[in-house]
Amino acid sequence: MKTIIRFFLTLLIFSAATTSCWTPPDYSPVPEIVFNSMDKFEVIEPFSQSKQDSVVITIDFKDGDGDLGESTDNRNNPNYGTWGNYELRTFRKVSGNQFEEVVLAANSKIFFPVLKPDRKRGPIEGKLDYAVYFPYARNARMTTVKFQIRIRDRALNVSNAVESDTISVPLLL
To answer: Signal sequence span per UniProt (predicted)?
Structure first.
């Protein structure tokens, strides 16, 4: 019996010592992002049954107060302006290392959901995936593109901008 009590007492002391040493990370309340990866998948659009490329862009994020994401009820807030809380700009290669922006209607006002459902203030970090689709239309041509991404939190703090790698997708010109 003494051995069991000694074991649990040791376990309790060890648990208290290890949990009391943890301090939350000290991130800025302005979101910070880093480009992580990009993957392309050929998919079939369910309604029209047409072939399209799905490009999934992954970014890593950090935010000091955890106010990332927006509920569907607040997405019409005029303070978000024209780009929501996720900005995706598409650039097509025109020659050499020259790129020009292509405005895609699907990228006009993008939102991602609240990332901390309890909405408690505190640091948060993780990954965000976003898929953009490029249909294989009759007038589409395979084009090299890259993306520029920014996010913003509910306090309207805007992150740094990151650029993706390049990828070839069917693009209507």
So the answer is: 1-22
CA angle 63, 111, 29 (to 5 degrees): 15
**List of residues 6+ apart from 1 with CB closer than 8 A:** none
Give pLDDT tens digits for 46-62: 888 889 999 999 999 99
32-44: strand order across its sheet: 32-44, 51-63, 124-135
| Boundaries of domain holding 94 | 25-172
Task: Give the chain's domain count.
Answer: 1
| Phi/psi of residue 61, nearest 5 degrees | -135, 155
In sign, the C-alpha dihedral spanning 21, 26, 29, 31 is negative
pLDDT tens track for 153-165? 999 999 999 999 9
What is the Cα–Cα distance from 81 to 152, expressed in whole angstroms?
A: 12
Token look-up 């490009």 returns: 55
Does residue 56 contact residue 167 with C-beta atoms inside 8 Å? no
CA distances for 154 relative to 45, 74, 75, 125, angstroms: 33, 10, 10, 16
How far are the Cα atoms of 41, 60, 89, 91 from residue 171, in angstroms, in the given order? 15, 27, 14, 11
The verdict on residue 15 lying in a domain is: no
| Residue 46's CATH number | 2.60.40
Residue 11, domain member (yes or no): no
